[in-house]
Amino acid sequence: MTKVKNIVMLGFGDMGKGIAQVCLMAGYNVTAVDVSDEIIEKGLEYNKTGFEKLEAKGKLPEDVSATDLMARLSVNKDLSKAVKNADLVIEAVVEKLDLKQKLCNTVIDNSPDHCIFASNTSSMSITEIAQGCKKPQNVIGIHFFNPAPLMRLIEVIKGDRSSNEAMDIGVELSESLPCLRGERFVARVLKDRPGFIVNRVLSPSRMYSNYIVDLAYEKGIPWEQVDADLSDPNAPMTSLTLSDFVGRDIAYHTQLYYAEKLSPDYKPGKVLTMQNNEGTLGKKTGQGFYDWSKGRPQPDLSKKAGLVNRLVFAAINANEGCRILEEGVVNSWKVIDEAILAGMNFPGPMKYATEHYEELSDLLEEYSEKLEKPYLKPCELLKTGKFVDMV
Ligand SMILES: NC(=O)c1ccc[n+]([C@@H]2O[C@H](COP(=O)([O-])OP(=O)(O)OC[C@H]3O[C@@H](n4cnc5c(N)ncnc54)[C@H](O)[C@@H]3O)[C@@H](O)[C@H]2O)c1
Question: Is 12's C-beta closer than 6 angstroms to any atom of ligand 1?
Fold first, then answer.
């Protein structure tokens, strides 16, 4: 197996600069490539000040200084030249399929034979990104969570034509990257299906939250009361504040994507469609569920609307976990729970489901009727409890 030494970080934006940081800390040489001079400057500054802070706190590996780390980071705006000696390229450019395909071709055509192209896409198919390139066996996904230095999870994804060797190199590389908050967890994604593990398992619960929000809107119930229903009191942000923070347009387009790839039942609800069309997108436009014009809102959660049955979320997520087990995306329910904990900082749904799958299945029968969403019906693995043995 080729030992990775030289990494090209293609795209030095929000994700790229953080991924470069952990690659440098693990001892690799990194060349950053981006089309924007401003982004390159910001990325260099982010890494420099980040390393200096870590050095001051004594958190860098022994005998390594911030200056040593920065000496292994270079910049090259010409991708064909930058990849001449690359062992692995991590791509984190904007989420556009034709761009990723074009860059994948350029990398494969100009790099050494063994060079791996790893995409950090959150939603696109690795198989489609590799389509048309000369060595699809060298193309995999390495999906980080944001911010890459702090989030423990990395998903390594096998496209339909990725070689086992490329997967092994991707996993070994990912396992070698430090995490500044706890222990790294690397999950092998064995099938290239939408959303991979974590985003996929959590995706259909939006059908239920859309339903709740639409119901509250029809009844004229204030968002704060709905938020009190939906929010986990221990979470750093309330549920609707987080929705505003991420952006309602992102949620809208993500749901359309799943509607196309998985089931029309994912189609955005009435309120989400309205927010997207009217441009009340949350933080970025100053108004979403809440007014952001004076900074982050502080909703009063003292009164609940009483619309939400929280167990329904657990049931929906466990059912989707069973679906990805059926599809062969992973072969152990424990991997799903570990991945969700490492990627989202809250427990996954599967352990609870091992003891309560009958109750959860009954609940899903009831709610799939109530919401008129056949996709929410319990799948065979959940209904029969057969997933329990898939450890
Ligand atoms: N932001 C997240 O939370 C997150 C999490 C996981 C994965 N991702 C994925 O990571 C990727 C990047 O996301 P981001 O949030 O860092 O975006 P970003 O907009 O911050 O960065 C993208 C960078 O790509 C650069 N770029 C555009 N065209 C280029 C080209 N032809 N060559 C080189 N660079 C080019 C841009 O200048 C920009 O700096 C996307 O595929 C996204 O889905 C994002």
Answer: yes
Beta carbon of 122 within 6 Å of any ligand 1 atom: yes
Residue 93 CA, ligand 1 centroid: distance in Å: 3
Residues facing residue 73 across a β-bridge: 30
Q: What is the pLDDT of residue 233?
A: 84
In the reported structure, the alpha carbon of residue 331 is separated from the centroid of ligand 1 by a whole-number distance in angstroms of 30
Condensed to tens digits (0 to 9), the pLDDT of residues 212-252 reads: 999 999 999 999 999 999 998 888 899 999 999 999 999 99
pTM assigned to the model: 0.95
State the DSSP code for 10. E
Q: Ligand 1: does its nearest atom lie under 6 Å from the Cβ of 180?
A: no
**68-93 burial: b if 16+ Cβ within 10 Å, else e:** ebeebbebbeebeebbeebbbbbbbb
Q: What is the b/e burial string over 152-173, where b = at least 16 CB atoms within 10 angstroms of the residue's CB? A: bbbbbbbbebbbeebbebbbeb
Torsion of CA 49, 53, 55, 56, to 10 degrees: 130
Query: Closest residue (by CA) to atom 22 of ligand 1?
Result: 93
Mutate to test the pocket of ligand 1, among 101, 117, 122, 257 (most ligand atoms within 8 A of CB): 122
Residue 278's pLDDT band (cuts 50, 70, 90) = very high
| Protein residue whose Cα sits closest to atom 2 of ligand 1 | 146
Which DSSP string corresponds to 217-235? Answer: HHHT--HHHHHHHH--TTS
Question: H-type helices in 222-296, by residue range?
Answer: 223-230, 239-246, 248-261, 270-278
Q: For residue 14, report the distance from its CA to the centre of ligand 1, in Å.
A: 7
Nearest atom (ligand 1) to Cα of 121: 41
Maximum alpha-carbon separation in the chain = 63
> 94 C-alpha to center of ligand 1: Å?
4
Give the residues across from 144 on adjacent strands.
154
Ordered domains of the chain (ranges, CATH):
6-192 (3.40.50.720), 200-285 (1.10.1040.10), 310-389 (1.10.1040.10)
